[in-house]
Amino acid sequence: MPSQSLGEAHDAIHNHHLSNREEFKQIRVNTCIKEDKVKLTSPAGIAVYADSTTPIADEDDRDGWLFKKEASNTTKFNYYFYSTGSHPLTLSTLNNVFMTCSVDRWDDSASVPFVVVYTKMTGSGDAGAWYKSKVAYALSSNKKIVAGELINLYCIENPNLNNGKRDVELETKIITGTADPSEEILTISVQCDSGSLINTKILVSHLGYKLNNEISRNIKLIV
Questions:
Q1: Average pLDDT, the chain
Q2: What is the pLDDT of residue 20?
Q3: If you ran DSSP here, which 8-state letter would residue 111 be given?
Q4: Measured at the alpha carbon of residue 56, what is the angle toward residues 58 and 105, in degrees to the nearest 5?
Q5: Count of domains in the chain?
Q6: What is the pLDDT of residues 60-110, one digit of tens each?
Q7: Inter-CA distances, 135 with 19, 48, 54, Å
Q8: pTM for the whole thing?
Q9: In the chain, where do the E strands start and end?
Q10: Distance between CA atoms of residues 86 and 61, nearest Å
Q11: Using 50, 70 and 90 to split pLDDT, how confident is the model at 5?
Q12: Model pLDDT, residue 51
């Protein structure tokens, strides 16, 4: 996935939906996921999909949230699933981020979801309107994707989920801003590309992360 296209897609969607820093702050504060599951219609679920097109139940009764692009526009999803707690955690502590998902239709690399990690603003050298830096992890061109296969997409380290699904690493790293290892993590998200074609379909059943070699989340998305 070309870095320029991915960066432009990120900027376009967030400039449109999250130009208001207070709006994003409210979304982030409300994203409290309990017991590693989140229901689509709950307040936590609404905060997770935030500025996205509302996901739907799968047409074939598979577990998870389905994104279906029904028009030739910039529609996409952004699922935010990390909120800060009692101690700040930095980019250097991030062991992995993953999603268990299915790309139900393959057109090109824009059909595949990716991970974006945002850091907190400091008031000096901030790269965005509500974040200091962002680091995206996307699929490289040598990876094989089979339409309809439920897989584990991950970045940084393999989470070793042992769920019987194939592990596929998101190897392409795209940095906006400084992304210093000492920067505090603001939020973590999985997203799809606003440049994807009409009829793009992506199912996400689980998403999660590991931090500081001790904090692990494996969150089930339920409808």
A1: 87
A2: 43
A3: G
A4: 55
A5: 1
A6: 999 999 999 998 889 899 999 998 888 899 999 999 999 999 999 999 989
A7: 19, 19, 25
A8: 0.85
A9: 37-39, 65-68, 78-80, 94-103, 114-119, 134-138, 150-156, 166-169, 172-176, 185-191, 201-211, 215-222
A10: 38
A11: very low
A12: 85
Helix locations, 161-212, DSSP H: none
Q: What is the pLDDT of residues 129-165, one digit of tens each?
A: 999 999 999 999 999 999 999 999 999 999 999 999 9
Does residue 46 sit in helix, strand or coil? helix
Tell me the pLDDT tens digit for each residue of 20-33.
444 444 444 445 55
> What tokens appear for 31 in the block?
């994203």
204 CB neighbour count, 10 Å cutoff: 22
Rounded-to-10 torsion of CA 42, 48, 50, 56: -70
Name the one residue in this structure whose structure tokens are 């699933």. 81
Say if residues 165 and 220 touch (Cβ distance below 8 Å): no
pLDDT at 185 (0 to 100)? 97
Structure tokens at 71: 């028009």
52/24 Cα distance (integer angstroms): 13
Type of residue numbered 132: K
The length of the chain, given as a count of residues: 223
Hey, what are 47's tokens?
């905060």
Its domain, for residue 141, covers 3-222
Provide the token pair at 166.
């194939």
Q: Which amino acid is at 191?
A: Q
- 206 forms bridges with which residues in the sheet? 100, 220
